[in-house]
Amino acid sequence: MSRRFPSFEIASLGSISATLITLVAVSGCGENVKFNNPLAKKPAQTQATSKPAPAAKPVAPAAKPGPSKEELARRTMIRTESIRGGTSRFSSGKSVGANSTVEQNVDRLRTEIASSIDFAPTLIVWVVDATQSASEMRQSWSTAAKQLYSDFQANGLPGGKASDSLSTAVVAFGEKTIILQDPTTDLAAVVSKVGTAIPTDNSGKENTFATLSQVFDTFGPVKQKESRELLVVVVSDEAGDDWMQVDAVTEKANALGARVYAIGVPAPLGRKRPEVAAQETRSDGMPAMLQGPETRYSQRVDMKFSSGGFGGDDVDSGYGPFSLGYLTNKTNGAFLISRLRSSQWPGSSMRFDDETMRKYPPQYLTEAQYQAKLAENKALAALDRAAQQGQVEAMTYPASQFIVEDEARLKNALDGAQRTAARLEPLVNAIYDPLAEGEKDRDKITDKRWQASYDLALGRAAAAKARTDGYNQMLAILKGGRKFEDPSHNTWKLEPADTLEEAGSRLEKTRLQAKEYLERIIKEHPDTPWAYYAEKELETPIGWKWAEY
To answer: What is the dihedral angle through the alpha carbons of 400, 406, 408, 414, rounded to the nearest 10 degrees?
Structure first.
């Protein structure tokens, strides 16, 4: 049977109204070394920096008398002071829009149900995550679904359709799949079933796509036999441990003409899981809580910042995890984001303007299409390779102050300090080298998200290389013999500076490369997470200079 549905869009949550008709899918030495931290943040200055950052695009305030407790907390938690003095222009958190609840998102599906049964009898299958971390979502779904079906029972189906126009099944999943309710048109039976607590699966495993495959195998024949439309709604706070099955499951859904929706939490930008502690453990000891990234594979290098501070590196991407985002997009459904205030993620993580983020959608490509993109562009292939590397710590606490008592003790101190750089250099190079090699294809990238991601990766990697190699070289210069200009001085201090000329032209070139790429992001992608990360990287000077005391 042919299908016709209005498209379904994840609009800015603050603009959703109860009368929404259609929704469109966006769906870090010797005893004479003092360990002063040269990268530690200085006290906030009363005077602005000489070159203030451009003002962020204003976001219309919500219609309320004052900031909520959550907003005030967010402003406090993400404030980041620069070593240069002043405060990041992103310190307000760029938080916009409302935090939609699971109940609200269930209610938003009324329109889709109404449209579907108006076209043809419909089978809707609710696929609910039974694991521990999803307990709040599960309870919220139960409350909302019970209300939904109670309304149908009391007032009839939308459009005055007969009760047999809507058939409902309920499935729970975790490590295993359990059919809780076979398809039924008995609204009272559905009210009773959805209002019943679903037993918790303590395995911590989410075999989401194996479950969906089973759902299509089980209910596909019912759809065909009864000539029904098939709507599948996944309620889960994760991406699915078996997400690599997404292409095959999507093909199966499309072969059946099934339309898939998902109610879940946003993915952390460029990460499989946020930095906050997981809300559950797995029985097999594997990492729990796979909640991202929003793209098929991460396009973000995992490097710590030298500036440190609150505010972390986690950013609400504004999109669901790729697996469910892809599935819902390719079946003309939608991923409905729920931001639960009581959950650790996304909690008070930084979030950016919805209208801005809509200009940077993930590319919902098949595995083959994604690999083809990497094969045809060396910059993208380098980004993919760099993003798969392990986390690189920043040089947050390198030895910076050296008291000259005698040459032997100074040499020992310098040797010990250089070991810090020696440990980090290969890790930094593993990220920087492929990115620099792929730079020749940078200008061939046309997608805005991939442009910003590559520029940020190369800019940050170049900054890390300049700081690390520069630190090592500056210590080597001191080790080679450097005289005090003032004979009364006996201490050398290595301080952050916007130059590496003393360390050599090669490193100065790398420093300038980092500066060029980071500043380009701020200019070409303002008010985005990539601009935020670029500005955060630039808070700490990308060079070194010697000062004597």
So the answer is: 10
Per DSSP (E only), the strands in 204-351 are 229-235, 259-264, 315-316, 334-337, 350-351
What's the pLDDT score for residue 460?
A: 96
* CB proximity list for 159: less than 8 A, separation 6 or greater: 114, 117, 118
139 is written with which tokens?
């309870």
The gap between the terminal CA atoms of the chain, to the nearest Å, is 83
How do residues 37-56 score in pLDDT, each as one tens digit?
444 444 444 333 344 444 44
* Calpha distance 481→437 (Å, rounded): 35
> Which of 340, 320, 316 minimizes the C-alpha distance to 328?
320
Could you tell me the sign of the dihedral formed by the alpha carbons of 94, 311, 348, 296, in that order?
Answer: positive
pTM for the full predicted model: 0.80
Helices 246-256 and 322-330: crossing angle in degrees, nearest 10, is: 20
Q: Computed from CA positions of residues 312, 465, 503, 505, in that sequence, does the dihedral angle turn out positive or negative? A: negative
CB 344 within 8 A of CB 275: no
Q: Residues 6 or more apart from 492 whose CB is under 8 A from it?
A: 401, 402, 404, 478, 482, 546, 547, 548, 549
Cβ-proximal residues to 40 (8 Å cutoff; 6+ apart), any chain: 83
Nearest to 292 by CA among 320, 326, 260, 264: 320
Peptide bond into 346 cis (omega under 30): yes
DSSP H or E run through 449:
helix 448-479
503, containing H or E segment: none
CA distance 84 to 538: 9
8 A C-beta contact, residue 93 and residue 78: yes
332's enclosing H/E stretch is none
Residue 32 pLDDT exceeds 70 = no
Q: For residues 47 and 30, is the Cβ–Cβ distance under 8 A?
A: no
Q: Name residue 147's amino acid.
A: Q
* Token pair belonging to 180: 């809780």
Largest CA distance in the chain: 97
Sign of CA dihedral 474, 480, 484, 490: positive
Helix (H, G, I), strand (E, B) or coil at 171: strand
78-134 per-position pLDDT tens digit:
333 334 444 444 443 333 345 688 999 999 999 999 999 999 999 999 999 999 888
